[in-house]
Design goal:
With about 280 residues, the protein is of the alpha+beta class. The chain has helices at about 20-35, 70-85, 100-110, 155-170, 185-190, 200-220, 225-240, 240-255, 270-275; strands at about 5-10, 55-60, 65-70, 85-95, 125-135, 140-145, 170-175, 260, 280. The chain is elongated, with a radius of gyration of 22 Å.
Length: about 280
């Protein structure tokens, strides 16, 4: 099933007592890994103490690389990016060059972020939560924020700095707010994500060729039945267990072979009509 993710408690060790030497060592290491095609996020989940949960998730679009997500909001944003067919690759905790962010801060007449709890308060490296490569060949940068944080003027200054950096690099930048992420769409993606690839992959791909037309036939015949009954009928038609049929159903939704109303909570006790389950003709 490839259910690879980890939720960690908020109280983790964090980087503290940071010196200029530390900063340069981390910066050089990040750049070296990036240039060698071995991308690693600038921060990982053990570096930062944050409220709520942090997640380590193996990404499909990044070829299995583990993504370090520092909040539930970032986790939900990651799921949306993984599901977005326009996204080719995802980079989390993306470092921005210090000399450039310092110049932008000076131009904007704002204070550059510093390591406040370190001796001498050296300038801090700025990061963007997500940078994604698009199939069109372009890139997009995304900052994930709680809407309540925007009441803080210092937060707005940091967002202005980040936005200016990406605009000077001709890259689209957007802010993604928690109020747009904490919804049924995200809950459904969290449910579906572990089924994105079924193992053994070759076996399930062949099985899906038999299961999918059977499911659509059962769906067409009795769309008012609970979805669980339709899934069960499709399972019996091809001689597999109900659980296997559920796996195939979730996998087919993730891979956009089946669609439904994502604004509703995907519950198998509801009827297919209620959820507006249907073949995805746009696939």
């Amino acid at each position: 099933m490839n259910r690879i993710y980890l939720v960690e408690a908020a109280m983790s060790k964090k980087r503290k007592g940071i010196t200029i030497f530390d900063r340069e060592r981390w910066s050089d290491g990040w750049l070296k890994n990036k240039e060698e095609g071995n991308y690693k996020p600038y921060f990982n989940t053990r570096d930062i103490a944050s409220s709520g949960n942090k997640h380590r998730v193996a990404g499909l679009k990044s070829g299995g690389r583990v993504h370090h997500l520092l909040s539930t909001n970032e986790y939900f944003q990651f799921l949306h990016l993984e599901f977005d067919p326009n996204v080719k690759n995802i980079y989390d905790q993306y470092m921005l060059p210090l000399n450039v962010t310092k110049a932008i801060a000076k131009e904007l007449d704002i204070k550059h972020p510093k390591y406040q709890n370190s001796t001498g308060k050296p300038d801090a490296l700025v990061t963007t939560d997500f940078v994604v490569e698009l199939h069109t060949g372009g890139k997009k940068a995304i900052s994930v924020k709680a809407k309540s944080a925007l009441k803080n003027n210092r937060t707005l200054e940091k967002q202005a700095l980040e936005k200016a950096y990406w605009e000077t690099n001709n890259t689209q930048w957007e802010m993604s707010l928690d109020v747009n992420l904490k919804n049924n769409m995200s809950i459904n993606l969290e449910l579906l994500y572990p089924y994105k690839v079924l193992e053994p992959e070759d076996f399930y791909q062949e099985l899906s060729k038999k299961w999918l037309p059977n499911f659509f036939a059962c769906l067409s015949e009795q769309p008012d039945l609970p979805l669980s009954d339709i899934i069960d009928k499709a399972a019996k038609n091809i001689g597999v267990e109900y659980k296997t049929s559920v796996n195939l159903f979730f996998n087919a939704i993730w891979n956009r072979l089946i669609t439904f109303d994502f604004s509703k909570n995907l519950q198998l006790e509801m009827s297919a009509n209620e959820l507006e389950v249907m073949p995805n003709d746009c696939h």
